[in-house]
Structures are given as C-alpha cells and as structure tokens.
Amino acid sequence: MSTQPLSNQPQPMNFQSRSMRINTAGRSAMNYLVSGLSILATVLVILPLLAILFYLLYKGASSLNLAFFTHIPAPVGEAGGGMANSIVGSGIILLLASLMGIPIGIAAGVYLAEFGRGRALATAIRFTADVLNGVPSIVMGIAIYSLIVVQQKHFSALAGGVALAIMMVPTITRTTEEMLATVPHAIREAALGLGVPKWRTVISVSLRTASPGIITGCMLAFARVAGETAPLLFTAFGNQFWSFKLNEPIAALPLQIYVYAISPYDEWHRLAWAGSLVLIVLIMVSVTLVRIFANRGVLKGAS
Amino acid sequence: MISTRMTSENEPGPVLPVPNTLPARPTKFAADPAPVFGAPAPSSIREYLSKRGSGSLADNTFAAVMLVCACSIFAIVLFIFGILVIHSHLSLVQFGWKFFTRQAWDPVSGDFGALPFIYGTLATSFLALLMAVPLALGVAIFITELCPQPLRSPISFLTELLAAIPSVVYGLWAVFVLVPIMRDVLGPFLYKYLGWTGFFEGSNFGVGMLTAGIILAIMILPIISSLTRDIMNAVPNSQREAVLALGATRWEMIRIGVLRNSRIGIVGAIMLGLGRALGETMAVTMVIGNHPDIAKSLFAPGYTLASVIANEFSEASGDLYLSALIEIGLALFLVTIVVNAVARLMVWAVTRNAPARVH
Amino acid sequence: MGVGILVEDLNAWYGSTHTLQDINLHIPANHATALIGPSGCGKSTFVRCLNRMHETNPIARATGVVKMGEVDIYKDASPVEIRRRVGMVFQRPNPFPTMSIYDNVVSGLKLNGFRNRRILDETCERSLKQAALWEEVKDDLKKKSGASLSGGQQQRMCIARALAVDPEVLLMDEPASALDPVSTSKIEDLIFQLKSQYTIVIVTHNMQQAARVAENTGFFLNGKMVEFDSTHKIFTNPKDKRTEDYITGRFG
Questions:
Q1: CA nearest C227 in B: which residue?
Q2: Which CATH superfamily is B85-351 part of?
Q3: Residue from A194, A201, A214, A300 whose CB has the most chain C CBs within 10 Å, to mutate
Q4: Interface mutation target, options B22, B28, B32, B43, chain C, most CBs of C under 10 Å
Q5: Residues of chain C in Cβ contact (below 8 Å) with chain A
Q6: Within 10 Å of residue A123's Cβ, how many Cβ atoms?
Q7: How far is Cα C97 from Cα A301, in angstroms, rounded to an integer?
C-alpha cells in the first residue's frame, strides 16, 4: 500500500467519462463505416464481372450454333456463317507463339534459378522481365511489323506468332524461376552427390519436380496472349477466309471480334458476341485449371 | 582423466600415423569381395561409371544455352527500342521535341503533334485511377482483413477472372452496354447535378473520355487489388497483434498496423495499375470517340496514344505519317517502361521477403 | 573394397570465412572413422571437401591435397567423376519426390545413363538389402513414391541409393540426427556391417554413436583438427586438453 495520501495516487483511467464515451463511439462508428465501405467496394467490383458474364452468356449463347464452329463468315447481308477460320487461325498463331516462346522462357527461367543465383546479371534480367511484362502489347505489334512485315511486304501468321511469343517469354521466365525456387536444395545436392552432372540434375531433378508449376505458368501465359488483339492488328492482320499458310494474313479470334464489333452490321455483331463467349470460356477454363493445378501441383512437387 | 569406458566391445583396428604407402585403388576387379547377400559382384557398375566422362562439355554447353536464352530478354527490349527509333527517324528529325507539345494532327498536310493524345492518355488514366484505387483498396482490405475464411478463395478467384477477360471483350461490352447507359442514364444524371462544374457539358453520345475512364477503371482494378493484397499479406501478424493489444478497433488496426507499413508498396501497386492504363488499347479505342481534341468536358470524345496507333496505323500513307505514329509508339514504350520500373522497385522494396507472384 | 584417404594441408573458405585450417589426416580404408566436435567447427565442411560438394557453393573454395588411393581428387579428376566414387548421405533424408522407391535407389545409375534392366533390378535388391530395407518395401518398389516412407525408412533408402553406385568411400553427415532412436540404432547397425566393405566417414554430434561404430575418431574445433586417434584412445585417454573438455561435456 502506498504511503501517499489517497488523492495523490494515480487514478485508473475512467472510460465512462463523457469525452471517453464519445471517443469510443466515434471510433466504433468509423470502424463500421469502413467495414461497410469495403464490403460495398467488393460488391461494386464483382458486379461488372457478373454483369459482363451474364450479358455475354445471354447474347452469345443465342448466337452460338454449330455453324459458328464450322463455317467461315458469310458475305455481308447474308445470315449464317461462323468464325471457324478465326478459331483455327488463333490456334495456329498460338501454336507458333508457344513453340517459340515456351522453350526460350523456360530456359531463361532455368538460368535465373539454377545458374544465376545471387549474380547481378540475374537480378538485371529478372527486373527487365518484370518491366517488359508491362509494355503495351500494341508496341510489340508495331515493332514486329517494322521487323518482319516491312521486310516481307505482307502480313503473315508468322509475324503474329512472333509478336505473341515475345509477350509470352517474360511471363514464362518469371513463373519458371519461381517454381524452380520452390524445389528444395537438398534434392539437388542428393543428385550432385551421386555424381550426376549438373545439366542432368537440372533436367531430371529440378525441372521434373517443379513441372506441375511450370506447366501452370505456361498455361497462364498462353491464356493471357490468347485474348490479345493489339499485337495482331498489324502482323496477322486478319482474313475473311480459310488460311493455313504461315506466310499469309490469318484470322484470329480476338482480332475478328474487334473487327466485327466496330462494324455497322448486325450479323457481324452477333458473331462478335458469340466469339467473345467462346474466347472467354476458353480463357476461364485455363485460369480455373491453373488454380487447381497450382494448389495441387506445388504441394506435391515440393514436399 | 576419464575413467568411464565409452567404447564398444569391438576394439579398433589400425591407427595413425600415416603410412608411406597407401592402399591403392583396385584397378582390376579380380579381388572382388565375397557377395554380401548372394547378389552378383557389383564390379560392372564401377566399371561403367568410371568410363563415363566428366560431362563437363555437356555442362558448359547447357549453361551457355540457358544464358543465351536468358539474355534474350535484354535482346527483346533493346530490339524494340532500336527498331522504334530507326523507324521513327523521319518524324524525330522533322519535329524534334516539339512533337509532344504541338496540337496539330493533319495527315494531309503532313503536320503532326502528339499533344492531344498525351492529354487523352493522361486524362483517361487519371480518371481510371480515381475510380479504381478506392475500390481496389476496399476490396483488398475486405479480402485480407474482414472476409470470412470460406469466402476468401471464391472472391479472390472472381477478381482473378476479372483480370483474365481480354481487352476486346471489355470493349465489346462497353460499346453495347456501357455506351447506351452513359448516353441515356448516367450522362443526363451527371449533367443535371454536376453540370455546374463544367466537366459534364456538351453533347453526349455515350462515347468519350468518361466512358473510356470507366472501362479502364474496371480493367485495372484487379491488378491493383491483387497486388495490394499481396503487399498487405506480407506485413507480419505481429504488427497487427501489437496494435490490437493497444485497444484499437479493427479499422484502426488495419490503418496503423498494416496500411502504414505497406504505404510504399501500395503506391507501387497503384503505379503498376497506371502503367497498364497508359498502354491499354482495344477497349479504350472502342469507346473514346477517336477525335484528337482537348476539351474540358468529360463527355467529349478524345484520343489516346495507343488508340491513334491502333486506328490509323494500317492506313498510314506516306513515310512521315507512319514515322509519326511509330514515334508515338516509342513514347508509349519509354513512358510505360519508366512507370513500371519505378513501380516494381517500390513493390519489391516491401515484398522482398515474402514469396512473390507474377502479375 | 574401400580406399584410404590422405588429406594434406586442406584449407577451406566460405567467402572470406576461413572454415578449415591446415587439416592433415589419414583415413584408413575399410574402417569407420568418426568426426566429432561442437556445432560449426567445420566437420561438415571437411566431409563435403572429400567429395568436392563444398565447391557447389559459388563463394566456397578449398586448397590442399586430398588423395583417395592414388588419385588427387582436386587435380586428377573432375568433381562429377569423384562423386561417382564417393557416396554421400545427408543429415536430413532427401529422396527424390517425383520418383518411386525403385527409381530413387537406382537413380545414381539411371541418371548416368545406365540402361541394363536386369542389373538395375539386381542392384536395387542388393542395395536395399544392404540398407536393411528390402523386407519392408520389396512389394511396393515401383508403386510407392520415395517420399511416402517414414523418416527412418527414407534415410535407409538414401543409404541404399548411395550404395547402389558401389562407391569406394561412404560419407555420412550426421545421418541419424533427424531420426528417432529405433531408426538410429538400425542405422548404426548398418554402418557396423558396411564398414568392412567401404571406407566410412561419419560426422556425428553424438559421442556415444562415435564410440559405438567407429574405429578411429577425429576431434574438430574451430576449423582445426585437434586430435585424431583410435576411438578407444580418444575417449579414454585423449592427448589434448581441449579434447578432454569436449568429451567430458564442458562445452559443445
């Protein structure tokens, strides 16, 4: 017990005084306000997504028929017709882009994770890849135009493929590097300790263990460039007819959607909606698959 | 001195010091040990392995190939820069720096100036940020701090889906849904109540700066939101607990314990959103009206750097015209690189120790 | 049969830290040699210098002479060739998670291009029997993944993996420190049986373990090798006072 007179002892804080009660009430109200605002924000964000999706389903589903997947566009004024050439064209360009972009991207990621750890060059490359991811795709388009289309004097599927490939490389590089970093160093050491040369260790141990994640990364990059229009505007250019040659202009799904959307013809608008639905379904399936694999694959590979 | 016997019953064999001759590595395998468990003598394995080379040639080749592929990233950047500079040479020489301050855009007379496009790009991006940042922060706060656990995954998945929708699909939706709404509902509403500000005047056909700003806001929202989420998750829980232990409300805990720590990172996330908005092409082109004007009203049509390239590139006749467009592309390239580089540095500074995700 | 190892003036660095200083010793063939000492004294670094794993770290380097039999492992051979002759078992079991038990055990052969199916099967059986794991896994060889076994089983599988390439030297860096006592005693029995066929170097924190399995013991302290002698001598009548202090538990 203190020997001081009672009035000099420190008093416990009085939370029941008027000013304290106002303070607490104010802070509490602010708390609820912010909670409410953030919930409102979330709702406002989800709304456009759902609005777009449902509107697409509504407009697109009614326009989808078998002819969409098997016919090329009909001449203006006639009904019927489809976007089969665009779907196939997209497939060809994406295949080209993947063949060029995926190996280079994975190899660059392998370098960053397995050979470049801690070195300044690797940091510079990593940073540059991240920055390159943010360059507008139309800039890639006009750069490839200047490189390939001008030389060849015509638009081509090849040019479109190259434009998409250079967009895939930075993304795949970073995801490959991150997936390889999750491989425990101990199993690399186990392989090296057995006298397995480094290159074989990288391929048969590191890449193999990280492969679910790396495939996921490639699918993400693929889904991203599948919807790109701008880089194809001046490289692939588009085509109303079937085209399988790499040296000719070729149709691509997002490209044709754009062309039809800004056209004045209702029939083409219908095709644009249907095409958008197909495109979105493909992309969403990829994103969902990626999510499933990411949850399963990383855990399985790295444990 | 130790008296406890810690050795086993089996007494040890040979000891030091170093003998002059060492036991040699058996080069012939005549003196194979008796098979231990009935298996054949393993000598063929030793023979096989000793014949394998050191693999150093393969190792060096492999490492070199990987290095070359990694340097391709540098090559891509340098190539884009180089080719844009070369092909915009005519315009660079003709107009110099004034290109970015002149307002003319007359392909017929060969007079080009990029100011309207710069204005259009900056205005739409700024508008988009104004609308998207509060919403994105709200969503991020909700998902990381307030959301009940079972809802967390679906909601973040939904925002990821939002990010996956291609630009042209956003544009399509904007043309047929957003533009009519703007023209018939939102426009008159804004004119009636906020017309006095001068931002909502003039004829409103639905296309214009405001519409472009709105669709841009929807598009950059997921990036800012998911990056902010990563940054907020990188703040250690001990910070949150320390603030709570002082008697803070939940909002105060978020403000003091989380947001204050991640300020720099959040600014970086916002800048990344800005970078994306600056370069966004398709959706903006479809709803901005494509008219190189600088006007105060948000209803007025405008033109952005990316849109003018998208619209006029294939019809550009004349080398100067093409060169001017490529110079615009060069400007866009450089600006987005700078914005992205600064943004990445800021985000990196905060999430250095947390596992990163690619965006 | 194993080979003897001669170490002369071995020095090792991690960056600028001088982790091993002037190590000189001779490890006799076909015997087990234990290396003891407090944490951080350099025993693991020393063992990793014996199969050139030390240099996998970009900031690490080593100087000196290490001879296995007639071969100077730093001058006469490449790291890859040396590691094929020297097996290593690590502190924590590190099976390859994407491979089955069978593939794990023969990985040293398969990843080096060995294709003969019959010999691979025989090698797998032999190694697993040597590691006293055969009975427990013989029915699941190709069905179960290497990572699905218990800790003790994984470590024995790693020992089998190291033995499958028929090394001349077996290096073990605290092989039982992450395991329960039953698994530990199984592994000690293993070492006891294997030492007549291979030269074994075992790093251990556990002095009783050293006493149980090794004929010779070396005591490391702060990067130097203080004393190397028969295990019996080290534990009953050490020459150096520092050894005596460590043995009696004064530090470390």
A1: B16
A2: MetI-like (1.10.3720.10)
A3: A194
A4: B22
A5: 51, 53, 56, 58, 80-85, 87-88, 90, 92, 94-98, 107-108, 111-112, 147, 158, 161-162, 165
A6: 12
A7: 7
Asked whether residue A30 is assigned to any structural domain, the reply reads no
**C97-to-A199, B274, C135, C148 alpha-carbon distances in Å:** 19, 43, 22, 8
**Contact (Cβ atoms closer than 8 angstroms) between residue A64 and residue A277:** yes
CATH of the domain at A195: 1.10.3720.10
SS3 C27: strand
> How many structural domains comprise chain A?
1
Band of the pLDDT at B30, cuts 50, 70, 90?
very low
**Residue B1: its pLDDT value, please?**
39
pLDDT at residue B79 in the model: 94
Asked if residue A302 has pLDDT above 80, the reply is no
Distance from the C178 Cα atom to the nearest Cα atom in chain A, whole angstroms? 14
Q: Do the strands C5-14 and C60-68 form a parallel or antiparallel pair, or are they unpaired?
A: antiparallel
Structure tokens at A142: 């006009």
Closest alpha carbon to B127 in B221, B216, B225, B191: B216
The mean pLDDT of A223-228, rounded to a whole number, is 91
Q: Determine phi and psi for C171, rounding to 5 degrees.
A: -105, 130
- pLDDT band (50, 70, 90) for residue B354: low
Residue A292 domain-assigned? no
DSSP tag of A75: P
Inter-residue contact A42 to B143 (CB < 8 Å): yes
Minimal Cα–Cα distance from C18 to chain B, Å?
A: 26
The pLDDT value given to residue A296: 60
How many angstroms away from the CA of B325 is the closest CA of chain C? 49
Write out residues 205-264 of B within 8 Å (CB-CB) of A.
Answer: 218, 221, 225, 249-252, 254
In a domain, A63, yes or no: no
User: What's the gap in Å between the CA of B76 and the closest CA on chain A?
Assistant: 7
Nearest to C163 by CA among C142, C141, C140, C134: C134
User: Which pLDDT band, with edges at 50, 70 and 90, does C191 fall under?
Assistant: confident
Tokens of C122: 């025989």
List the one residue out of C175, C202, C221 whose CA is nearest residue C19: C221
Mean pLDDT of chain C: 89
The span from the first CA to the last CA of chain B, in angstroms, equals 67
| Beta carbons of A148 and A81 less than 8 angstroms apart | no
User: CA–CA distance from B261 to each of B124, B139, B177, B265, C170 (Å)?
Assistant: 30, 18, 40, 9, 51
Contact partners for chain B, using 3 or more CB pairs closer than 8 A, are A, C
Decide if B64 touches A, using CB distance below 8 A: no
Tokens for A3?
């020997």
In a domain, A159, yes or no: yes
| Phi/psi at C225 (5° precision) | -95, 115
Rounded Cα distance between B194 and B313, Å, is 38
* Rounded CA separation A50/A40 (Å): 15
Q: Tell me the pLDDT tens digit for each residue of A269-293.
A: 888 998 998 898 888 888 888 777 7
Q: Residue B356: what pLDDT?
A: 44
B178-215 residue pLDDT tens: 899 888 888 888 888 887 777 787 778 888 899 999 99
Beta bridge partners of C218: C35, C228
Q: For tokens 């598009």, name the residue.
A: B219
Structure tokens at B331: 């400007």
Per the structure, the complete domain to which residue A197 belongs is given by: 86-253
Nearest to B143 by CA among B231, B243, B273, B245: B231
Query: A251 — alpha (psi -120 to 50), left (phi > 0) or beta?
Result: beta
- Name the CATH superfamily housing domain C5-94+168-247: P-loop containing nucleotide triphosphate hydrolases (3.40.50.300)
Express each pLDDT in A196-219 by its tens digit: 999 999 999 999 999 988 988 898
